[in-house]
Structure formats: structure tokens, C-alpha cells
Amino acid sequence: MVHVETKKGPWTEQEDVQLVFYVNLLGDRRWDFIAKVSGLKRTGKSCRLRWVNYLHPDLKRGKMTPHEERLVLQLHSRWGNRWSRIARKLPGRTDNEIKNYWRTHMRKKALAKKKTISPFSSSSSFSLNSPAREFTPVTENNRSFYDTGGRNVLANNIDKSDFEVDMDEIWKDIELSEENCNFSCQLMASPTWDFCLDSFLWPMDIEGQSKMVLPISDNFNSLTFYNQEMTG
DNA sequence: AAGTGGGTCAACCGCAACTGC
DNA sequence: AGCAGTTGCGGTTGACCCACT
């Protein structure tokens, strides 16, 4: 067993480019393989985290809208610290983001609110016995951006409790709010949104500051085997 | 100007669950 | 069925920034 020293700490722009390249090439599933093949001295785990929390093109960045805040508050009351589950209900938000947000903003608000009135009074639109309803925001691949595979693939399919909550009103709220904030959301897009596999170019040539050279890993030959394996 | 405290965010860790052999 | 490898999740930490004193 050859021990490869793994790098930790903040990701560099170069590493991000590398990761985006290999994820576009291999898909966002086989993280360990991506970590090895890319030549990044990162663990698969670290690669996945970086992709899910920062590089994924469907990520919405910027401040939470009031509707998202409300949704987090309500879902947290319902599910507790099930951040990934909550994240699946908020298009473009990650569990990490929501978790961080909760710690700072929402916990305060929740406590304040608790003092006045419970968010789940008898008139709440939530119901344990509401009819199941498909709600999960999906990408063009018909799966949440948040779902990069693994055990969650199965969990997403069978976890019917995800849909136990009748959230029509909340969802309408989100749709309304997103209509209103569409423009600003686009402006807040992730730095990798414009990365294009066709050109392998980053839109950063402004001021000539970034001639990104993608280092092709020594392990790149492994891709040959991988592609053969995938294409049969 | 320096110190301090709170907010924000990215990243790591440990554990549990899943998958494939 | 059992095991090893991989992936996902939730908790936690630490760096950075900014406002305030």
C-alpha cells in the first residue's frame, strides 16, 4: 500500500479548476477515483465536499431570502438537525450553508419566536398525515444537485417521510420569491458557473490575471481503463 | 491604533450507511 | 453473510472579516 500524503486546508484556484475538469469528465460520483486520477493530493471526501459546497454549478450563493429563512425555520422545527434533508428542500443551498446559517441567524430567531408563539400551532400547514407529495427540487438529471450518489441515492428513493409534509404554501412562496430574486441570484452565481468543458477556459482572462494551465495528472492514463470500463 | 467579540464561511473529523466482491 | 472500500451526514473547528470600544 503506497501512502500518498494528502493535502489539507483551503483549496487553491488551480485545484478548483482541476476538480471541475475531472468532475465534468467523470461525473460527480466516484470521488475516490476522481481524487486519485486528478492528481489532486486530496481525499475523495475532500473533493466531494468542495464540489458540493462550493463548485457545483447549481449552487445559489448570497443571502438567504426571507422565504428560505422561513422554510429553514419550519423544516428545522419539523426535522431537527437533519441538514441534508432540509437542504434538499432548498434549491441551490447546501447542508453546510444551512447549518452555518442556522447557527448564526436562525437559532436566535427560533428562540425569540419560541418565546412568542410556536411556529407549529394547530393552524400550521404542516401535518404528519398529509398526503405524500413530490417536492424535491431537481436538476435536469432529475436528481437534486445535492445528491452526488452513494447511499443517498437509495435513501432519496425510499425515504417517503421526505414527502410527508404538505408544503404547498411554502413552495409557492419560494417560487414567488425566486421570480423576484432571479436576477440577483444569477449575479451571485458560483465562480465555476461559466466553466465550460468545451473550451477548458475560465472567464478570468480579464486583466490577464489567470492563464490557467490544467495539469494533467500522471494518473491520467487510468482514464483509459475507466472509459473502457464505462463504455464496455 | 490596538484589542476584542461576534458573525460568516470553508473545511476537517468521526461515524454510520451503502456498495460491491 | 461478511468484509473492505466508498460515500454521506452532522458536529465541530479555525481563519478571516468587521464593527465596536
Automatic annotation (TrEMBL):
<keyword id="KW-0677">Repeat</keyword>
<dbReference type="Pfam" id="PF00249">
    <property type="entry name" value="Myb_DNA-binding"/>
</dbReference>
<dbReference type="InterPro" id="IPR044676">
    <property type="entry name" value="EOBI/EOBII-like_plant"/>
</dbReference>
<dbReference type="GO" id="GO:0005634">
    <property type="term" value="C:nucleus"/>
</dbReference>
<keyword id="KW-0539">Nucleus</keyword>
<feature type="domain" description="HTH myb-type">
    <location>
        <begin position="3"/>
        <end position="55"/>
    </location>
</feature>
<comment type="function">
    <text>Transcription factor.</text>
</comment>
<dbReference type="GO" id="GO:0003700">
    <property type="term" value="F:DNA-binding transcription factor activity"/>
</dbReference>
<keyword id="KW-0804">Transcription</keyword>
<dbReference type="InterPro" id="IPR001005">
    <property type="entry name" value="SANT/Myb"/>
</dbReference>
<feature type="domain" description="HTH myb-type">
    <location>
        <begin position="56"/>
        <end position="110"/>
    </location>
</feature>
<keyword id="KW-0238">DNA-binding</keyword>
<dbReference type="GO" id="GO:0043565">
    <property type="term" value="F:sequence-specific DNA binding"/>
</dbReference>
<feature type="domain" description="Myb-like">
    <location>
        <begin position="56"/>
        <end position="106"/>
    </location>
</feature>
<protein>
    <submittedName>
        <fullName>Transcription factor MYB48-like</fullName>
    </submittedName>
</protein>
<keyword id="KW-0805">Transcription regulation</keyword>
<dbReference type="InterPro" id="IPR009057">
    <property type="entry name" value="Homeodomain-like_sf"/>
</dbReference>
<feature type="domain" description="Myb-like">
    <location>
        <begin position="3"/>
        <end position="55"/>
    </location>
</feature>
<dbReference type="InterPro" id="IPR017930">
    <property type="entry name" value="Myb_dom"/>
</dbReference>
